[in-house]
């Protein structure tokens, strides 16, 4: 990014504000003209052509007075509608990209296309004897103002190719804060994952290796003591059973000896 002096920064800021305001205001005006004027002319011409094909006397007499045929009415209606579509697309693009320096060259191409379409439309109206000064002004002057505004942004893009926005509005600042917060959160997650995937040091591995034999020896001693206790309990139970059996065997013999005496 090029370093700019204070005077150059002020000049660039004025250029950015002028270009943005011009594109924003003229873009809205072009959209309104397309909806309220150009599209209405096209719809009216198509309705006139439809009524003329039906044979309505008033429409036929009106077209005869103006030396207009049904084919000319259809052609004018189609031209007006196509021009309205181009005007709406250009106006929406100008409003949308009015603060984007990185889209300036694309927007300039769109404005040049609109200017060419408007010039062709005025030529068609001139040959059909339907040209008016008000329509000529709105059709040529508005695209020229829009071209002047987008040229300001193109100069900014040439001076600073890395610049994205013309003016740092509150919406832009909030978007940049959200992007930086998301990037910081992502970097923290990446650091945690990298730390978890790092291999353990040799010292910890040795300590773990030294601790494992001691744990195994303790477990073996516990198992041996439990086995000894179980054997002793079994031996005691066997001794008690043998004593009980001897007692039961001796009791009937003593009873028979007493009866014989």
Helix content estimate:
over 70%
How much of the polypeptide forms β-strand, as a percent range?
under 5%
- Count of distinct strands: 0
The tally of helices reads 7
Task: Specify Rg, calculated over alpha carbons.
Answer: 48 Å
Strand count, sense and closure of the main sheet? none
Following the backbone from N to C, one meets helices and strands in this order, namely HHHHHHH
Determine the mean pLDDT: 79
Shape: elongated
Give the domain tally.
2
Distance between the termini: 131 Å
Return residue spans where pLDDT drops below 50 for at least 5 consecutive residues: 252-261
Structural class: mainly alpha
Walk me through the structure.
- There is one protein chain.
- About 85% of the residues lie in helices and about 0% in strands.
- It has about 260 residues and is mainly alpha-helical.
- The longest helix has about 60 residues, at about 200-260.
- The protein starts with 5 loop residues before the first helix and ends with a helix.
Keywords:
mainly alpha, 85% helix
Question: Could you provide a short overview of the structure?
Answer:
This protein has helices at residues 6-54, 57-65, 70-96, 104-127, 133-159, 170-197, 202-260.
List the helices and strands and how they pair.
Elements lengths: L5 H49 L2 H9 L4 H27 L7 H24 L5 H27 L10 H28 L4 H59 L1
Helix pairs in contact: 1-3, 1-5, 3-4, 4-5
């Amino acid at each position: 990014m090029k370093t700019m002096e204070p005077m150059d920064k002020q000049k660039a800021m004025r250029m950015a504000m002028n270009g943005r305001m011009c594109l924003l205001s003229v873009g809205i005006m072009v959209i309104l003209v397309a909806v309220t004027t150009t599209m209405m002319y096209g719809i009216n011409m198509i309705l006139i052509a439809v009524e003329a094909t039906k044979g309505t006397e008033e429409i036929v007499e009106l077209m005869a007075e103006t030396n207009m045929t049904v084919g000319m009415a259809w052609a004018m209606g189609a031209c007006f509608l196509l021009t309205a579509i181009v005007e709406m697309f250009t106006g929406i693009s100008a409003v949308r990209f009015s603060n984007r320096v990185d889209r300036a060259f694309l927007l300039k191409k769109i404005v040049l296309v609109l200017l060419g379409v408007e010039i062709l439309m005025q030529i068609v109206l001139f040959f059909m004897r339907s040209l008016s000064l008000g329509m000529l002004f709105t059709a040529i002057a508005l695209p020229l103002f829009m071209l002047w505004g987008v040229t300001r942004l193109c100069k900014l893009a040439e001076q600073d190719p890395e610049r994205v926005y013309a003016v740092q509005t509150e919406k832009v600042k909030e978007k940049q804060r959200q992007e930086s917060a998301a990037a910081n959160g992502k970097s923290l997650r990446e650091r945690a994952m990298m730390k978890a995937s790092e291999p353990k040091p040799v010292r910890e591995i040795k300590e773990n290796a030294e601790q494992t034999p001691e744990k195994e020896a303790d477990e073996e001693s516990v198992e041996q003591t439990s086995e000894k206790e179980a054997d002793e309990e079994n031996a005691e139970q066997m001794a008690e059973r043998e004593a009980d059996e001897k007692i039961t065997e001796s009791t009937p013999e003593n009873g028979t000896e007493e009866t014989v005496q």
